[in-house]
Design a protein that fits this description.
By secondary structure, this protein is α/β, with parallel strands linked by helices. The protein is built from 2 helices and 9 strands, in the order βββαββββαββ. The strands form 3 sheets. A 3-stranded antiparallel β-sheet has the order 1-2-3, with no helix packed on it. About 20% of the residues are buried.
Length: about 160
């Protein structure tokens, strides 16, 4: 039997300026994301939608989730394959398109991991293992838009 997992979070709006949502410009988009035993995340909407640029927005968090999931699976598949990763940084970017009705959707996310492996003989396998990591990533398997990869692998 396959295991199931639940993930509990609490999102609390903190943006009431005294008149609630009496008008579109009357309230802040500020909120906090909490989970048991975790540091609080200060959230808002994207600045394009009247959000606070100093706070994380849901779109950034979605891109971060895809990047994190890929990283964690990539490290796993590399360790299993005997590829020694000594460094990993991903400058991921997500693209969202607004729709005429004011909504929108992501059209794609591009992960751009820069990976360092211990030996030159590991580079080819390290590049190929990104496909395995992508195939296993829970988050990438849950979204309805493409997640692309443009990895760079080097040695020290």
């Amino acid at each position: 039997m396959a295991a199931t997992h639940t993930y509990d979070v609490t999102v609390t709006w903190s943006g009431d300026r005294g008149t609630g949502t009496s008008g579109y410009r009357a309230y802040d988009r500020a909120h906090e994301v909490d989970a048991p035993g975790r540091d609080r995340i200060a959230g808002s909407s994207d600045p394009a939608f009247r959000g606070d640029p100093a706070r994380w927005n849901p779109e950034q968090l979605l891109v971060a989730s895809l990047s994190q999931c890929h990283l964690l699976w990539y490290l796993h598949v590399c360790a299993s394959a005997g590829v020694v990763v000594t460094g990993y940084t991903d400058d991921a970017v997500g693209t969202m398109a607004e729709t005429a009705d004011g909504g929108g959707h992501f059209t794609e996310v591009l992960l751009r991991p820069r990976v360092t492996v211990a030996e030159p003989g590991m580079v080819e396998a390290a590049v190929a293992l990104h496909a395995d990591a992508h195939a296993k990533c829970f988050i990438a398997n849950s979204v309805n838009f493409p997640v692309h990869h443009a990895p760079t692998v080097t040695t020290p």
